[in-house]
Amino acid sequence: MLHLDLDAFFAAVEQRDKPSLRGKPVVVGGVGGRGVVSTASYEARVYGVRSAMSTREARSRCPHAAFLSGRFHAYRETSRQVMGLLRAASPLVEPLSLDEAFVDLAHAGLPDLSVETVTAFAEDLRARVMEATGGLTASVGIGTSKFIAKVASDLRKPDALVVVAPGTERDLLRPMDVRVIPGVGPATAERMRRVGIHTVEQLEAVSEDEMVRLLGNAHGHWLYSLARAEDDRPVVAEREAKSVSVEGTYDTDLTDRKLMESLLTRQANEVAGRLRKGGLSGRTVTIKVRLHDFTTLSRSSTLPSPTDSAATIARLARTLLADLDTTGGVRLLGVGVSGLADWVQEDLFGEAAEEEVEVLPEVEVPHHSRRTWAPGMDVEHAEHGRGWVWGSGRGVVTVRFETASTPPGPVRSFKDDDPDLTPWRPPEPEDEDGT
Question: What is the CATH number of domain 171-226?
């Protein structure tokens, strides 16, 4: 098994596309007072900045870092390039997120699976990833199981390759902290600490019965096996869709409850259309609501049988919204359906088919007269060309004009309603694999 993890992915993409930030601390995530760090470059990590840390604390630790809101279109496109390379190498690729995946090397067409052969393969793969992504590095681990490959890829980050030879897995694991094992979070680690278990070697010495007594049946058996480097999980190349959802982010906070209900109704209609197109239905309807202070809430309701009815999904979504306090304003609304099945229970509520059709209300979403200029976003100026937002406020937006293929560029400031300055987005990629 091979595990590939792109190093400090979001921050690395920003540094690639913004020459003036190369070699400097970069933090990607929420930039407001309640924001959270998504990714920090290695230059920022030197100052103690970590993922999931509050942006407020990150700023106090590294005030000179560039704090950017993120550009998911750039991350998705870079991920698509990397996953394409992996799928060209082996038909069994299991993406875990935009920046990491497992690859089954037994199906990669290699002459053998010796340490020398897989090492040469991985080095070539890392070089191709760097070339395809414009300089991004990847840490790669190779082992006899998913668990060992993942542990190996974390050992010497960034930009490293670690191959764990068959038969050496336990020697590698024994000195490590028990938290290296998937499923050992803070609560489990604390429970182990109380009984004197700190390392994998100490965990290995515990009997299976004692492990089950300490951690429960499923968790105990699982950790007992992993402590002995026993992991037979296969690489799952194609994961079935677990949910279908639609969401929207709005330029100005929504406060009109009727407007929110109308937007949810339209989103439910779109979700239902996607379900029917895929021959699917679902039992659980979920709404996602992000409030004015970036607090994100979700509420769900589960039906006795699956449905693909827009009216049913919309009614449940509106009912779920009614239980939330949205008086402070809403930045984002979304509707999703999970618990998917490939069949539908007709007349779920004993309603006639024609009653399942709702007339969608006219919706006009209010918007600011001035655009929102998020730090890091791509922009284009009629005279100066492409660049990115360095900062904004008090009616002014400051832009550094540079791209991945230019030297560090000049900085210019404009009124934030300057008609010559517009957001820039790349053309939408062709629809591939039905996604």
Answer: 1.10.150.20
Residue numbers in the chain where pLDDT is lower than 50: 345-357, 368-370, 431-435
Q: What share of the chain is helix, strand, coil (3-state, %, to 5)?
A: 35, 25, 40
User: Residues forming the annotated binding site for Mg(2+)?
Assistant: 5, 99
Which fold would CATH assign to domain 252-356? Dna Ligase; domain 1 (3.30.1490)
Numbered residues of the known binding site: 5, 99
Integer Cα distance of 327 and 198 in angstroms? 48
Note the pLDDT tens digit of each residue in 137-169: 999 999 999 999 999 999 999 999 999 999 999
Question: Does the domain formed by 1-162 have CATH 3.30.70.270?
Answer: yes
How far is 157 from 297, CA to CA, in rounded Å? 35
Provide the Cα torsion 85, 87, 92, 94; round to 10°.
70
The two structure tokens encoding residue 337: 């359906």
User: Measuring CA to CA, how many Å separate 156 from each of 3, 23, 51, 141, 159?
Assistant: 13, 19, 18, 10, 8
Contacts of 158 (CB under 8 A, 6+ apart): 7, 8, 42, 137, 139
Helix (H, G, I), strand (E, B) or coil at 112: coil
Give dist(CA 37, CA 424) in Å, integer. 24
**Is 100 annotated in the active site?**
yes
- Biggest alpha carbon–alpha carbon distance for the chain: 72
Structure tokens at 122: 């991985």
> Residues 20-42: pLDDT tens digits?
999 999 999 877 666 788 899 99
Handedness of CA 239, 283, 289, 248 (dihedral sign): positive
Choose among 73, 6, 89, 3: nearest CA to 41.
Answer: 6
Please return the burial class of 190, using the count of CB atoms within 10 Å of its CB with bins 0-12, 13-18 and 19+.
exposed
CA distance 349 to 29: 44
DSSP code, position 294: S
Q: What is the dihedral of CA 336, 73, 32, 296, to 10 degrees?
A: 10
Point out which residues pair with 341 in neighbouring strands: 281
Q: What is the DSSP letter of 328?
A: T
Tokens standing for residue 272: 């239902």
Q: At 103, list the tokens.
A: 């690859």
Which one from 94, 100, 169, 261 is the annotated catalytic residue?
Answer: 100
Closest CA to 162 of 309, 1, 317, 44: 1
